[in-house]
Amino acid sequence: MSEPAGAEPRRILGVGVATLDIVNETETYPEEDTEVRALRQTWRRGGNVTNSLVVLSQLGHACSWVGTLGDDPQSAAVLSDLDLNGIDRSHCVRIKGGTTPTSCVLLSRADGSRTIVHYRDLPELTAAQFRAIDPRGYDWVHFEGREHAETAAMFRDLLGRAPACRFSLEVEKPRPGIADLLIGPQLVLFSRPYALSLGYTDPRRFLAEQWVRTTASLLVLPWGADGAYGQMRGETPFFVPPYAPPEVRDTLGAGDVLNAAVIAGVLAGLAPPVALDRASRLAGHKCGRDGLAGLVGSARRAGLLAAAS
């Protein structure tokens, strides 16, 4: 599918969590109180925002990450993977004696579904720590919606010091005060579990009823295997169909891929329906592959992305 050539590379800062993912692949999801043998185990760097940065880096952008990380031996695997993917991590805040956040993942080969048990005892990044970064060097900042008071303070700081810098927010979980963060970002990326937690089963209705809460110009709501929805301020919602790979192998991080591709599409000046369609294709392609390594190149070879996009 042909697309307009991508814009020049931009500098993007991601604010959020990096984790160590221990992924156990099983034939099917095990029943409770049983013991099964894993078919394969891999250790990966994970975390929503760092996953998105890896994809944005593959799409040609210069990416940096800021967040907290322990100083234990496991943190070396996280930092090494960021280095391997060209992600600047010079802003990383190391916590002395801290434990690297860890996700134990069960990945079912039967349908590619994943179940995650996450452990984290690190403090969240604070607004004071964010203030140590000069945001004027970035074209876009992408935030995970986490601790609302500190994140809201980061928004105010960003708007005060770099008013021309655009930023986005991922709203994945129904955390206390999360709706307060809808004021400020130009792009808000919701999750299906978040919409369902508020009682919405109609994606279009959910999007239509968020405008009284947000200053964003574009809202996006992936709806899993049923496709994805978006809406621009003052316009009607639009839908893009899902892309089904020949075989579903690994859905871990698919939402992070979609978020990254939407951001890249907006930066490239694509119309939002085109940007979301491209993002849906890339996320679907990811579900047919293990991990994120070589994802964008593989999608281009498969004709799902233009060579310059």
Describe the structure.
By secondary structure, the chain is of the alpha/beta class. It has one domain (11-19, 47-100, 124-301): Ribokinase (UDP-N-acetylmuramoyl-L-alanine:D-glutamate ligase, 3-Layer(aba) Sandwich). Helices cover 28% and strands 23% of the residues. It has helices at residues 48-58, 75-84, 127-130, 148-161, 192-197, 203-208, 254-267, 272-287, 295-301; strands at 11-15, 19-26, 40-46, 62-66, 68-70, 93-95, 102-108, 114-119, 140-144, 166-171, 187-190, 218-222, 228-232, 238-240. The N and C termini lie close together (11 Å). The relative contact order is 0.15.
Concise structural overview:
Helix 7 runs antiparallel to helix 8. Helix content is 28%, strand content 23%.
The CATH class, by name, is Alpha Beta
CATH fold name = UDP-N-acetylmuramoyl-L-alanine:D-glutamate ligase
CATH architectural label:
3-Layer(aba) Sandwich
Instruction: Count up the domains.
Output: 1
CA distance, first residue to last residue: 11 Å
Order of strands side by side in the largest beta sheet? 4-1-9-10-11-12-13-14
Number of discrete helical segments: 9
Primary descriptors:
9 helices; single chain; eight-stranded mixed β-sheet; four-stranded mixed β-sheet; alpha/beta; 309 residues; UDP-N-acetylmuramoyl-L-alanine:D-glutamate ligase
